[in-house]
TrEMBL record:
Domain called Fumarate lyase N-terminal: residue spans: 9-299
Keyword field contains RNA-binding: no
HAMAP family: Arg_succ_lyase (MF_00006)
Record-given protein name: Argininosuccinate lyase
One GO cellular component term: cytosol
Catalytic activity from the UniProt record: 2-(N(omega)-L-arginino)succinate = fumarate + L-arginine
InterPro entries xref list: Arg_succ_lyase_C, Argininosuccinate_lyase, Fumarase/histidase_N, Fumarate_lyase_fam, Fumarate_lyase_N, L-Aspartase-like
Organism: Arcobacter nitrofigilis (strain ATCC 33309 / DSM 7299 / CCUG 15893 / LMG 7604 / NCTC 12251 / CI)
Location, primary (coarse class): cytoplasm
Family the entry assigns: Belongs to the lyase 1 family. Argininosuccinate lyase subfamily.
GO molecular function annotation: argininosuccinate lyase activity
This protein's encoding gene: argH
Amino acid sequence: MANDQILKNTNAKLLDEFNASVMFDKELYAQDIKGSIAHSQMLKEQGILTKKDQEDIENGLLQVKEEIESGKFEFKIEHEDIHMAVESRLTEIIGEAGKRLHTARSRNDQVATDFRLYVQDKNLSIKAQLKELVNTFVEVAKKHTETLIPGMTHLQHAQPINFGYHLLAYANMFKRDFERFESSHERNNYCPLGSAALAGTPHNINRFSTSEKLGFNSPTISALDTVSDRDFALEILFNISTAMMHISRISEELVTWSSYEFQFVRMSDEYATTSSIMPQKKNPDVPELLRGKTGRVYGNLVSLFTVMKGLPLAYNKDTQEDKEGVFDSVKTIEISISILNEVIKTMIINVERMANACKIGHLSATDLADYLVQKQAMPFRTAYYITKDVVTLANSLNKDISELTLEEIRSSNENIKDIDEEILMYLDLKASMNARTSFGGTSTKNTKEQIEIFEKWLKN
């Protein structure tokens, strides 16, 4: 019998640990207390709570908040979740009135409210971080509107662009990320509280009052949908995953650019480390970690998608698995944006190395073909093959096409033996870059116009 009792106690303890969420959903304590205060105020307005009970509840909740933030509060597995932990302590502090707080609500709508408040707060704070990151890219870009760098496709040298223009491509990515978080905040800014378990409540509550107190636009429409909806959590995970994908892309470029073969940039010693065995090496550990952490947030997104895919209406315990991945992804994106921001601010740019790299791969070859089409009235396909002959000659002379003399260009193909020396200007790398004046193009003038657009946006 003794052994049976031990086994029974052990199983009960295991089940408590398996069932409880308080050790991770305590992250929501501030939102839980905020929601409970708003709920109590509404209950008083509706005559469901007395003025005295409501004041005791609110003061008691503020005391619980102070205890949690000062580290005095003891979280226990037997409380199961943050809601019961707070309510139990509240009742210890103020007595019977604490038990009246849960009138006209369920843990189902309570957790939906707490979690949504958390996600909405993070939509705003991450959005602000992204705006700061965009500003950093723009500030660095302003200094490099004439700095040449090879523009690439398929990781092959393609056409000369300026480095500021390259950085603004990332500024555009992070601006879109900003807009995604902004859109998600607006779309999900509706209050679940008062939905109760799944069908509303017979108590005479005012959900519009609660919604306003908590900063939502209005209450959610369907109680049945609301208690099981986690679209808002999936959205922030998707938004974080997309932003981390963009962070990973620039991190990949930073790793490549800082390699010995490229030497386009050198990262500050704060954001790079030496090898444990090779003292001459400087490793780009920070961008590598940023790149690696992207897979982590992807996993959190897929995990919640998998949890939600088979759930019938309404609330199911499965959704207890919705929070840890979100908490983890939020912390990951917050630190990743902060660190990337500092890396971009402090990196040292090797302008000369970038310019020399533009002399590899005949980046102005397209300009020769365009010149022949525009100035010599040649069909593009003819111009294409003539340009190919010029490139072949340049390769045989171990020169870049931009370094050829007029005589060398003329000698490459019978059809251009009398070509005007104006062609030399078209093959100049900086002239090639500045020739691309179409809207969104890489010319210094266009890049400065893009910077002005960003600066106007940043001021809003």
